[in-house]
Each structure stands twice: as structure tokens, then as C-alpha cells.
Design a protein that fits this description.
single chain; Four Helix Bundle (Hemerythrin (Met), subunit A); mainly alpha; 2 strands; globular; 12 helices
Length: about 260
Amino acid sequence: MKKNIDATSIKWLKYVPNSLTLCNSLCGFASIIVALSYNNDQVLPGVQNYVFIVCSWLILGAMIFDCLDGFAARMLKATSMHGLQMDSLADMVTFGVAPATLLTALTYSLKTLEFRHTALVWVLAAIYLGGAALRLATYNVHAMLEKKSDDKFHGLPSPGAAAAICTTVLFYNKLGISHTDYWWVIPVYGAVLGFLMVSPVRYLHIGKWLVSAVKSKRKMAIVLVFLILAILSPVYTGFIFINVYILLGLLIAFWNLLTGKNKEA
């Protein structure tokens, strides 16, 4: 009887990673719904100012589930091709469609804009969305072909791109700048991020770096300093961290180009 109970418990544990992935996609879906509700007459005027902030936090919160589902799958030995496909589909919703909707909604919130400005934002949002789709498709192909991955991503990972958009929105709000003043910054930045996702620029795999940090006192010190700063000022820390991460990847790629270190690759 005890063996049957243990077997049933193990069977149910296999569903934990997929449940976490579903939470990831639900956060993305909630962000989309909130962004689309900005011009809803039922939304109170005072609440409207917080709509884009809520959208940003929902997408950032989804990253917790995105990290946990992979960790749970490895711990419970529940990795599968089904989980891989489901993870990418959830990432497409949360880190692809939701940020694209957010930067588009920022434009629609300004009713005084001309159509040519709105159409330009559509194009910029499409570039971001296309970059995210191509990035995730490339990741799936590499995973299905069982190619060994190193400690770096080839192209900016989609969660990093989404984090860049969300932390920028939160950063401007923290400075007291209204979205009516920075609405054009997010779409332009989103298009740049879309190109970076399909670029050959290599970015550090934060997950693998954190795993290796356990064996390094220097890395552990960096992690502790980051956690303290994140607790004291999460918005500023997140904005600086993700943008330094993106900029460093570009600078290293440019340096390798100048020195010829990337010729072998």
C-alpha cells in the first residue's frame, strides 16, 4: 500500500514543472489584459496611471516561474520534449506578446497622436515580436537536435529583452516621468531588443553562472551584493543590471570584432 502511495505521489510531482510553466503564461496573459484595459471607461482615472506599472511587474513576476519550472524539472527528473515546447509557448506569450502589447498600449493611451506615429509603433512592436519568435524557435531547434550549450546565449534571451522593457517603464515611473513623455522610447528600445535577440551577440547564461557561483567566493559575494541592492531599491537595481548586461554583451562583441577573436567562431 505504501509503495502505491509513493508511486502516486511521484506521478503527481511530474506535473509540477508544467504547472509552473502555466503560471508563467498566465502572468503574461494577465499583463496583456491589464494593458488593453487602459482606455476602458470602467477603469478609474487614478488607477489608469498604474496600469503599465502592473503590466511590467506581472511580466517580471513571470520570470520567477520561468526559472522555477526548469529547476523543478531537473530536480524531479521530469524533463521532456512536451515540457520544452510548452515552456517556449509560455515564453512567447509572456516575453514576446505581452511586452509588445505593453509598448503598443503606451501609444494608444495618447489619443492626440497622428496615425503615422501609431503605424510606426506597430512596426517597431512587430520587430520586437518577430525577434522573440525567431529567438525561441532557434532555441527549440538547438534543444531538439540535442546540441550542447555553453555558458553563453547566442543572441539576447527573450526574458532579458522583456525585462529591459519592463524595468525601463518602472524606472521612468520611479523618476516621476509620465508615460506621455517617454511613450516613444519604449517602442524604439523594443525594436533594438528585437534585433539583438536574433543577433550573433553572445550573452552570459545567468542561470549557469549562478550554479557555478556556489563554488566561487567571489561570485557569491557579487550575488549577495546584488540581492542587498535589489531589496533596498528593486527598480533602480533591476534597470541598471539588465541594461549593463545588454551593453556589456555589445561591447564584448565589438571588442572581439576589432581584435579578431570571433573569426574562429
